[in-house]
Amino acid sequence: MTSDLEATTDDLQHTIRELWQQAQGGAGELAPPEGFGQSVTSVRDTEIAEATGLELDPVREYLDNADGTLLVVGRDGDTRTVKALL
What we know:
Structural class: alpha+beta
Shape: globular
Strand order of the largest sheet: 1-3-2
Distance between the termini: 27 Å
Helix content: 40-55%
Order of helices and strands: HEHHEE
Strand content: 15-25%
Largest sheet: 3 strands, antiparallel
CATH topology: Arc Repressor Mutant, subunit A
Number of helices: 3
């Protein structure tokens, strides 16, 4: 049986992947091709919260925990951005 936390985590991960791919122009790949460089578009924590219907604090906590294992997360003050998928 899947817990609510596991379901929420799975939903968050799925939504982040979709938003990130859309931000890259709908690329089918998880990572942009070599040479894509500076044209990678990050996804802000506010976009993720809006898409999932969650508050910012749990979204930011998820991003902090996923940084380095599932995602590359940038920080600017309290704001988090998804810079890449791993």
